[in-house]
Amino acid sequence: MKNEIIIKNAKENNLKGIDLTIPRDKLVLFTGISGSGKSSLAFDTIFAEGQRRYIESLSAYARQFLGQMDKPDVESIEGLSPAISIDQKTTSSNPRSTVGTVTEIYDYLRLLYARVGTPYCPNCGKEIKRQTVDQIADKVAGLGQGAKIQILAPVVRGRKGEFQKLFESLKKQGFVRVNVDGEQRLLEEEIKLEKTYKHTISVVVDRLSVKEDMSQRLYDSLETALKLAEGLVVVKTEDSETMYSEKLSCPDCGVTLEELEPRMFSFNSPFGACPDCTGLGFKREFEPDLVIPDKTKSLSGGAVKLMGFNLDGGVMQLYFKALAKRYGFDLNAPVKDLPDEIMRILLWGNDGEPLSIEYQTRSFEGQYTKLWHGLIPTLERRYNESTSDTVRREYENYMVDRECPTCHGKRLKKEVLSVKIGGKNIYELTQMSVEECAAFFENLRLDETKTLIARMVLKEINARLKFLKDVGLDYLTLARSSGSLSGGEAQRIRLATQIGSGLTGVLYILDEPSIGLHQRDNEKLLATLKRLRDLGNTVIVVEHDEDTMYAADCIVDVGPGAGIHGGEIVCVGDVEKIKQCPNSITGKYLSGERKVPVPEKRRKGNGLFLEVRGAAENNLKNINVKIPLGEFVCVTGVSGSGKSSLVNEILYKALARDLNRAKTIPGKHKEIRGMENLDKVIAIDQSPIGRTPRSNPATYTGVFTDIRMLYAATTDAKMRGFTPSRFSFNVKGGRCEACQGDGIIKIEMHFLSDVYVPCEVCKGKRYNRETLEVKYKGKSINDVLEMSVEEGMEFFSNIPKIYRKLKTLYEVGLGYIKLGQPATTLSGGEAQRVKLATELSKRSTGKTIYILDEPSIGLHQRDNEKLIDTLLHLRDLGNTLIVVEHDEDTIRAADFVVDVGPGAGVHGGEIVATGTPGEIMACPRSVTGQYLSGAKKIPVPETRREGTGKFLSIRGARKNNLKNLDVDIPLGVLNVVTGVSGSGKSSLVNEILNPYLSEKLNGARHTAVECDSVEGLEHLDKVINIDQSPIGRTPRSNPATYTGMFTAIRDLFASTPDAKERGYKAGRFSFNVAGGRCENCAGDGILKIEMNFLPDVYVPCEVCHGTRYNRETLQVRYKGKNIADVLDMRVEDALEFFDSIPAIKNKLQTLYDVGLGYIKLGQSATTLSGGEAQRVKLSTELSKRSTGKTVYLLDEPTTGLHTADVEKLIKILQRLVASGNTVIVIEHNLDIIKVADNVIDLGPEGGNGGGSLVAQGTPEQVANVKGSYTGRFLNAVLEK
């Protein structure tokens, strides 16, 4: 047992409770077909448990910084060592990360150059030697008579700390002043510094003027400063500071270098990095070829398609017309035909020459003078000044990285580059390959003293270079960006680092290290793995490579199939045992029984070629390549031969740019011929299809959208009012809210690993009960997600749209994966095949039509402006947009309006007017037109309510982005909480105020809220949240039952003589209980007919014919109408019918007042919109007796409302407030905001830029606050 690792009952992912024993201190190989469970066993089970145990062996203090790993689904693992995973993730995408920094070789080089490097003058090239005090004094004396100077001793430079002891020491030595971070301070005052920040401190040693008789004083002061600062002194004049070193200075040029320190040679430190590019070696600049990508087009024909540079209208059109007139060129001429000077003016400006710009509108015309700065300078200004990440990302599409003009890509200051060892500076050394670097240090000769100093450093450098050579990476340069490394190269770098650590007794797990290796390099890799094993470690390799199998001490074959067909141990043993195993597919290939056949014939292709000429990227030497089209072409070669440079850097980027219109810059080449024979290029890589478990093959391929639409189209779903979004586990509605659609709950265990358990509400099914009740062919939506692809193909065989997408997944070998399998559990190959299947299932489309349903919902006016700009941009690209919208700004921006009406419900359904917004305004029948033209409008109140003088005060609100917010909400008035999207409105009202008031006033369950306190509750008795959620989940719910009016109606019918004579009580007239209802349909009025593999069919009940009641109940009448007739009445009809019954009329009147006169009393709740449901709730509240101490909360009640309906809503809200109640509304609609008594404006921006109180007061007061976006838009509506 000592020499074995024993695994019992492993069940992670698709593993089927396997037991396995593998030897310790050996090279063990896990193999099997893709998806068989190799990685689940190696990484998700063995590595996870090994690392978890190691971390748990540390102290509780250490564990809180390292985090915890989940315990894998395995009964036990014995004989396990601390585990280290060496996978194929890239090292870093940070441009500052290089091969040298990742391997730590660069750190040792910095130390080497700082300790034994020889500095040279960057100007004259002479070796720099130390300066004496006399030489420094002579330099100072040369500043000229009368020059005022300060002698400073830089005692602290760029170090963290508070330095209190230093200040005390300096004070005791008699010094009076210090310069702290550029500010002069007196030592007698208290100086407090942040210990977490870096500081620079200089002691003011002396202040004097340059005179002939000051030499002794100057000499003494310089000596004192040099002693304090350990050989450094700063001479500060009125306009400059010069540092002198007692050690390093060029006597001829006057150049002084600081004492050599390792940080000076770091391009990540301000002490060494080039100040122009901050150590990156490049600067991001706008590329003219991306700004004007297609030079065959004219300026008026769309050659420039940039954000804010549209020639279809606006200011830019005026600029370009003025330029064309001034410099005599044609806007309709192709850009390629324009003279070079004109192109220079267009791109870089006209050297400050004023430009006369003419403009003309319908009303007047004129001209004004402006400067033309050029496209690129204007873009640079907008990019630098923009605070929007979206805008900056858009502009970055037109930028490229260019070599820094100051350091020429060398990243470091010229003074640092003047330090050399063996005739080479540190940059030149990092430009060498690993092999060349090793040879350089082998031949390096230093003097005796420097050899003694450098001995340990050189030993570490040489060892690391050797490890890199051993793993086949001798071709890499130390300056190579780590982001450009392949997964295999990054993995081998980590492998080399582990060998360098010299650890023993460790379990190493590697994921297919042979990927990307030529056979020659694979031999080096195997030798390295054996060396790692021989150090006393256990090495587990997940691999398919045949040579690695033959080199392994033990092979574990996992299978026999993939996915649900795998997860078992087929065979364990050496390579010969695997060959002899009859059940091992791996063994059959190893023995030669099965093999990939060589094609008898090769495809001839279509006779066309793609020819790359003059390829010179990276190490490519101006090569020409002809690639035949219509054939399977393989590009191979040893590692680092230039395959990626040719295919990825040149070919793909050039094709993507020219065929896909991608914003890419291909590598160096002269030309590519034959592109006319292709239409697009698609790169399908192994990056994940999603970063969270919510992403899965069904969502990525788009098939889940089709599946959700299919479920929404079932009769059962339609009866419940379920739309496709109901069947999404990513949004509220259909998902289980207990686990938010994850299916699992995380239980935090503090010092133990977090535990994940199936959700106790949905039992891991992700959806709530009502959603799961909707079935198609007997299966719920969760059952479908649990299906494998092959099961899904059979299940959806009669739905071509779904079947076709599933079939492509099956055809790429993914029949075994589940439709809902989390993306994070898919291997790179599986992810790649999912993408392939997605591409295979696509069909070519024509021009795009976009349909949007109220896109302005939840948007502040500022954000709505951006939305409208986006919609117009989509239109300008040639697309068609159909937008369902009430927002006035959106309507005005439209090219064509279709006005439906004229009223609601039975009073609507007609086309009132069509045409431009102007034509809609001219139509007398159009209510929309009347509001647009101003003929109708919602008036601004003449006076604002003062309220009760009492307040609801929130202190220290800090939920989400709220920044410790204090706000006082006046009671007895209409309050509106507004602000840009993401400013913190919902966090304040819905996530702090509502749960707190619900708990304290309504007795709701305790909910922790993130604020210090809420004061003023003694003035309130309850809180009511009126949202847009449905008034019921089933067709049995309706406005009559929700408002309570149906109880009064049933009482009325029970009081009729006919009902009394029959002995009928009010319960007889309910369709929810036995007695009066039709028992054949249980009061539903319809019957569900199950159709097995076809959708269920709903038909009217053949007994009651849809009336819901039995014959005897329907014989009871009031004013000639039975109970079913009443439920079928519209509100406005019922208002007249029950005119003499106040208990019923009052409730009907409030429904009518909120604009719902058109709905039926018995209308199914599932057919009501969110806005209609909200107004039913409002009418219910209006019909109740008011206590005057109620707080009503509403979240964007104008959603889905026409301006005419908004006017009715305002009247309702005012009635609630008039009764003494307090109303708090989250809203962006300016008509609501302008009638409010008190406006609370949060912002100023969204997200991290929000969470603060920008303004509060009446709409007029908010309108006068300059920093308020709301105020800016309010000004316009208040002035109307």
Distance between the termini: 88 Å
DSSP helix fraction: 25-40%
Unreliably modeled segments? 844-850, 1091-1095
Structural class: alpha+beta
Number of strands: 41
Shape: globular
Sheet with most strands: 6 strands, mixed
What would you report as the Rg, rounded to the nearest angstrom? 39 Å
Please characterize this protein's 3D structure.
The protein has 1280 residues and is of the alpha+beta class. The strands form 13 sheets. A six-stranded mixed beta sheet has the order 5-18-19-3-20-21, with helices on both faces. A six-stranded antiparallel beta sheet has the order 9-8-10-7-11-12, covered by helices on one side. Helix 16 (448-470) crosses helix 17 and helix 37 runs antiparallel to helix 42 (1142-1153). It is globular. 36% of the residues are buried. Residues 844-850 and 1091-1095 have low confidence and may be disordered.
Which secondary structure elements does this structure contain, and how are they paired or packed?
Blueprint: E1 4-10, E2 18-23, E3 27-31, H1 38-56, H2 60-66, E4 74-78, E5 83-86, H3 99-102, H4 105-116, E6 118-119, H5 133-141, E7 148-160, H6 164-172, E8 177-180, E9 183-186, E10 198-209, H7 215-228, E11 232-236, E12 241-245, E13 282-286, H8 288-291, H9 315-327, H10 340-348, E14 354-360, E15 365-371, H11 375-385, H12 389-396, E16 399-403, H13 414-417, E17 419-420, H14 426-430, H15 434-442, H16 448-470, H17 487-501, E18 507-511, H18 519-534, E19 538-542, H19 546-551, E20 554-559, E21 568-573, H20 575-580, H21 585-591, E22 609-615, E23 623-628, H22 643-659, E24 671-673, H23 697-701, H24 703-712, H25 715-720, E25 744-747, E26 755-758, H26 769-772, H27 781-785, H28 789-795, H29 800-811, H30 828-841, E27 849-853, H31 861-876, E28 880-884, H32 888-893, E29 897-901, E30 910-915, H33 917-921, H34 927-933, E31 951-957, E32 965-970, E33 974-979, H35 985-1002, E34 1013-1015, E35 1022-1026, H36 1039-1043, H37 1045-1054, H38 1057-1062, E36 1086-1091, E37 1094-1100, H39 1111-1114, H40 1123-1127, H41 1131-1137, H42 1142-1153, H43 1170-1182, ...
Parallel strand pairs: 3-19, 3-20, 5-18, 18-19, 27-28, 33-39, 33-40, 35-38, 38-39
Antiparallel strand pairs: 1-2, 1-4, 6-17, 7-10, 7-11, 8-9, 8-10, 11-12, 13-16, 14-15, 20-21, 22-23, 22-24, 25-26, 29-30, 31-32, 31-34, 36-37, 40-41
Helix pairs in contact: 4-16, 5-7, 15-16, 16-17, 17-18, 28-29, 29-30, 37-42, 41-42, 42-43, 43-44
